[in-house]
Design brief:
The protein has 136 residues and is mostly helical. It has a single domain, classed as Aldolase class I (TIM Barrel, Alpha-Beta Barrel). It contains 5 helices and 3 strands. Strand 2, helix 5 and strand 3 form a beta-alpha-beta unit.
Length: 136
């Protein structure tokens, strides 16, 4: 059973600003208006975003498309310029940042630089998920 992590919750709540609360209210209300009217309505920016630093992996997990090398999309590394541009455009509304989707984030040679860039914004809450550390 999962535990409530008080320190993590305090850290997340400390990132709330009036601008982020307003953005969250816009996102929440557009969801319900879309549901009630059955027409798409989208207000506000995402409150959370997930970056995939790479979709490469050094493991061969049988249940993972990255491990099986069976992607139907191109493989590669997230470009740091694209990452910086996205963070610069969204960090005032963005509350939560995740570095992971499929692949091992630490295989991207610019990964730690990207983490530092996001953490220098000081008002983002982030998590890094990994499969395993690179060989060597």
């Amino acid at each position: 059973m999962s535990r409530f992590h008080t320190q993590d919750a305090k850290n997340l709540l400390s990132k709330l600003t009036a601008r982020r609360l307003w953005n969250g209210l816009k996102v929440w209300s557009s969801y319900y208006i879309s549901k009630w009217t059955k027409k798409p309505v989208q207000w506000g920016y995402p409150i959370s975003i997930s970056f995939e630093p790479t979709n490469f992996c050094n493991l061969r997990c049988p249940e993972c498309p990255s491990g099986l090398r069976s992607f139907t999309r191109p493989t590669g590394m997230l470009q740091k310029d694209f990452f910086r541009q996205t963070i610069d455009e969204m960090h005032r509304e963005l509350l939560y940042l995740v570095f992971y989707f499929q692949g091992e984030p630490y295989l991207n040679p610019n990964f730690l630089e990207m983490v530092k860039y996001a953490s220098d914004k000081k008002d983002l809450h982030g998590h890094i998920y990994q499969c395993a550390l690179p060989d060597g």
